[in-house]
Fold these 2 entries.
Entry 1:
Amino acid sequence: MLEIKNLTKKYGSKIALSNVALSIPRGQIVGLFGENGAGKTTLMKCILGFLAHEGEISLDGQPITAKNIAKISFATCEHSFFPNLDAKAHMGFYREHFPKFSEKRFRALMSFFDLPFSKNIKSFSTGQKNQFEVICALSQGADYILMDEPFAGNDIFNREDFYKVLLGILEEHETVILSTHLIEEVSSFIGRAVLIRKGEIIGDVDTLELEEQGLSLMDYIKNTYNYRADRVSRALDELGGGEE
């Protein structure tokens, strides 16, 4: 269980996260949704211990330290791999530093994405780099896999196929927390949606509950965010009026 209690993060006078509370058990696929700047990346970096913060974050009842941080992996669009090394060298590094590293999964995902083993990662395209980042995170052997906009630079066919592969390879104890703006694409893939706005959790729902209510994930998000359907027409009216 990943537990977050009263998590607050400030950058000077700006509050990035305010009293965030979440409990995420093993075996879930959680979508983390919010506008740009809502606090999604900050939340993930606090979980990983990258940022100092107020409040408590625990994993299986214990603080997250060097002793248990290997239970969490991170696929970030900022990238965490070694750009001057190739995939074979990364395999050796992960094998040495992470006892639960799955070489079988690593090789299978490299094959799925058709990535070369002997080219330095810095020579990859942006999409390939993001694919490799995801491969490393999924192969580390972590119980909690955090993904922050992992599909940038990938075409829709690669993304759709990857969702299917991910569902097929995840084990019961593995949890994915996925931050993405591709809401409609992942709506049938996630089991839980957490909404964050201006650093606060404003929604947390099981997607099966939405189905039972006859609501789509997009409907739920728009309702929770009080989305104004007339904002486009109002803007166009104002722009048109400004030209007269």
Entry 2:
Amino acid sequence: MPPFLIDTHSHIHLSTSENERNDILARMKSENIWTITVGTNTRTSKEAVAFAEAHENIWATAGYHPEHLTSSYVDENDGEPGAYSIEEIRSVATSSKKIVAIGETGLDFFRIDDGITIDTAKRIQEQAFREHIKLAHELSLPVVIHCRNAFDDLTRILSDEISNGKKIRAVVHCFSGSWEDAKPLLDLGVFLSFTGIITFPPKKSEDPKQSIHRVIEQMPVDRIMVETDSPWLAPVPYRGKQNEPTYVKYIAGKIAELRKIDITDFSKIVTTTSGRFFQIRV
């Protein structure tokens, strides 16, 4: 039976205990939710593969998060990232048929260590990002992109790689930009994926014209994906609590509301889009 929804970007393998994971898996089965669990470094990519291979309707990615390249910050869910090596990422990516993408990779200029200039950080992250794009091209896999405070650089790099002959099938996960950020990426054929952020009340200082809701309303519906990024970014009504793949229904519901279409109709559209993109039979 096809899934009701595919949570295209979770980190379910990073949940804190086996009992907790088993409870989440039971709820996913009950609600017919599938997921892709995403690697953020060599270790977590290996763990994602092992978790996906142990469970039905779960797939994995292999990649190295850009923040780890230029920041010593460590999230308690993620752990120490270890050294970056694109060859190690390649090894993981070719180790299992459950691997459906390269990533997450990309650019993150929000948190950079003291002693590293922004120019140096950009150079280091860009080099690794281009290596991930090359690997994805060689393996005929899509790229899962993380982008924070870097949309202009992201568009530039993707345009350059496409001009140089790379066949790029890409999704920007947890998209949180404006229409001005989204339009150049959409023109390049990029997909956009949305998280629980879209369910949060707007900030008082936010210009409604710059709202992420305007992106959702204007972009092609068949270029939209939904995700939880769990265990982070739980949507309303669970904001501030631990997130899980079943909560993707709240994100899909908000998009259906904004697009003024029935949730059942939207779930069919977005599930078909995600299945085709990641080459998952739905």
